[in-house]
Design a protein that fits this description.
With 176 residues, this protein is an alpha+beta fold. The chain contains four helices and nine strands. α1 packs antiparallel against α2 (42-49). The longest helix has 15 residues, at 114-128. The relative contact order is 0.16.
Length: 176
């Protein structure tokens, strides 16, 4: 167990949960208004559906928030080595940096601070690993997350921006 936060436990996902987490991620991202759908970016959704595969990479962790009634309320992928981050642009060559991607919160659990809990867990892991910065990306379709990132101190970093097919993706950094 990583963190016990009142009614939630934040921990690494176990393999028997991978399919359920993949489904949650596909559901969350496919419902974002203005975000590419499964037909437009099939490889992206294949990555989401098979999210457990990402944990095979070194220093890559799939973290989950589990409620007291054992329900997975949210998940995120933490990268302790940016080489495995999987984005376009320069992010994968950044040194002394961690990142997180694919943050998803169950729609029924929104507004309870679950996204913030996952981010704070990633930040703590990065600090424990003596990283200098946290790198993340967002899109215009992710306005709720974007506002949360900025409120937590993440600053836009245009040098990290890239295009994922036709989708503009925007980079952010937080110095640790």
């Amino acid at each position: 167990m990583l963190v016990n936060h009142h009614e939630y436990i934040i921990r690494d996902a176990i393999s028997s949960e991978f399919l359920k987490i993949g489904k949650l991620m596909v559901d969350v991202y496919s419902q974002l208004e203005g975000f590419p759908n499964k037909d437009e970016q099939p490889n992206y959704y294949k990555t989401l559906a098979n999210i457990g595969n990402i944990t095979k990479n070194p220093k890559t962790r799939l973290l989950v928030v589990v409620s007291s009634n054992k329900k997975i309320e949210g998940a995120v992928v933490y990268f302790g080595d940016m080489k495995y981050y999987g984005s376009g642009g320069i992010a994968t060559s950044e040194k002394d940096a961690s990142g997180f991607r694919l943050l998803a919160v169950d729609p029924e659990a929104r507004g309870k601070g679950i996204g913030r809990l996952l981010i704070n867990t990633c930040l703590q892991i990065a600090k424990d690993e003596k990283q200098n910065q946290m790198i993340i990306h967002s899109t215009k379709a992710m306005q709720i997350a974007w506002k949360m990132y900025e409120s937590m101190g993440f600053a836009r970093s245009q040098d990290l921006d890239f295009k994922q097919e036709d989708l503009q993706v925007f980079g952010f950094r937080l110095k640790l």
